[in-house]
Amino acid sequence: MTTIAFIRHGETDWNTERRAQGCKDIPLNDKGIYQAARLSERLIDEKWDVIYASPLKRAFKTAEALSGVTGLPVIADERLREISFGETEGTTEAERVERWGEDWMNLDLGRETNEEADFRWRAVLKEITVNHKNQKVIIVTHGALLVRIFKDLLQDKTDQWYGLNNTSFSVFQLTPQDRWKCELFNCQKHLEETATI
Question: Model pTM?
Answer without folding.
Answer: 0.94
